[in-house]
Design goal:
It contains 9 helices and 15 strands. By secondary structure, the protein is α/β, with parallel strands linked by helices.
């Protein structure tokens, strides 16, 4: 993979996810590839942006733009993905959909190579790549966070239960949600009426488990997606996930409180030992607690383990406090999915 030069398209290059993906591509094993930034909206076409250390021009997206491409990342709007993905597929490109628009489409795989690695390749998980895989939906960042932790612990100490409360950042829903959170904050501090188009509720300085009926941001849909993807990827090998999504008044970064219960008593040190490895940054009690701020700009998932029981020694109940940069995690994970597509098509042209 590292020795090949690919032609890569990023659709929705001016979105938050698209910008992060372009940066991450420039620092990844695909950095030597030719990266083409594409937009369907005329307002963004012709603008200069960065991809790694390179300055790139955003080009106009049309149905002929995918000719000769090895990979196409869809990172913009869902309707944009629905409109153009079949053209990318007919052109023979490997497709990586970060918009979730293709969930439920035939022969489209929801996958996480990182969760598969955490569980051990010999495990029977869902979402496994094969030679027929051309279109992939990388698992939601929250699924990646929870799936890696659950798979890695379960591999050594079988889990009885897992439950999580995920704090949802505004950036997970794009620039419009970010802008509204900012404007709500400004409006509250200046005693003005709040804009409510995205959330239909006061999100600034607030924590909400449900938004207004007219909200464009759908917490319920996100919760269902995470549950659905976790269940599909665990394929019955991991305990079911009990989940609640809470909208947090933050711009970037997932933070999660996770409850784990093992079938047999283990110590904190043993649980930390099971979690240690790639993609996990273990934070000990004496260090600063993980937060959306400390996780910013990092690909790793920050994890702190605490006992969920009194006294010393071993027990079966534990609390994990986790944090991750949602955009960077999503971008790095999507590139890993493209890497799996490239590995299965060693000719250098994904078709």
């Amino acid at each position: 993979m590292t020795s090949k030069v690919y032609r890569i398209g990023v659709v929705g290059a001016s979105s938050l996810t698209g910008k992060e993906l372009s940066e991450e591509l420039g620092e990844s094993s695909l950095a030597a590839s030719r990266i083409v930034l594409l937009e369907d909206e005329d307002a963004s076409v012709g603008k200069l942006t960065t991809s790694g250390d390179e300055i790139s021009l955003i080009q106009k997206l049309d149905r002929s733009a995918f000719e000769g491409m090895d990979f196409v990342f869809f990172a913009g709007q869902r309707d944009e993905t629905a409109k153009y993905w079949q053209d990318a597929r007919k052109a023979g490109a490997g497709i990586v959909d970060l918009t979730y628009a293709l969930e439920g489409e035939r022969d489209v795989l929801v996958a996480s190579p990182w969760i598969s690695e955490a569980a051990g390749r010999q495990s029977v998980l869902g979402g496994e790549f094969d030679l027929g895989t051309q279109t992939v939906i990388p698992a939601h960042p929250a699924v990646v966070m929870l799936g890696i932790v659950a798979a890695r612990v379960h591999r050594q100490f079988p889990l009885h239960a897992i439950a999580a409360t995920m704090m949802e950042p505004a950036s997970e829903h794009g620039s419009a949600a970010m802008d509204e959170l900012h404007q709500q904050t400004v409006s509250l501090l200046s005693f003005q009426d709040l804009p409510r188009e995205q959330y239909d509720a006061q999100v600034s300085f607030n924590l909400l488990a449900a938004l207004g009926d007219a909200a464009k941001v759908k917490l319920g849909a996100t919760e269902e997606r995470i549950q659905r993807q976790y269940a599909a990827l665990s394929n019955g090998a991991l305990p079911p996930l009990a989940l609640q999504i809470v909208q947090a008044p933050v711009f970037h970064g997932y933070v999660s409180s996770v409850y784990l219960e093992t079938t047999e008593p283990v110590t904190v040190a043993q649980l930390e030992g099971a979690l240690a490895g790639e993609h996990i940054d273990l934070v000990t009690e004496g260090s600063e607690s993980p937060s959306n701020l400390s996780a910013a700009g990092q690909e790793e998932i920050m994890v702190r383990v605490r006992k969920g029981f009194e006294g010393g020694g071993a027990g079966t109940r534990f609390w994990l406090w986790m944090a991750a940069d949602n955009l960077k995690l999503a971008a790095a994970h999507a590139i890993a999915c493209a890497g799996e597509l490239g590995r299965l098509r060693p000719s250098g042209k994904v078709q």
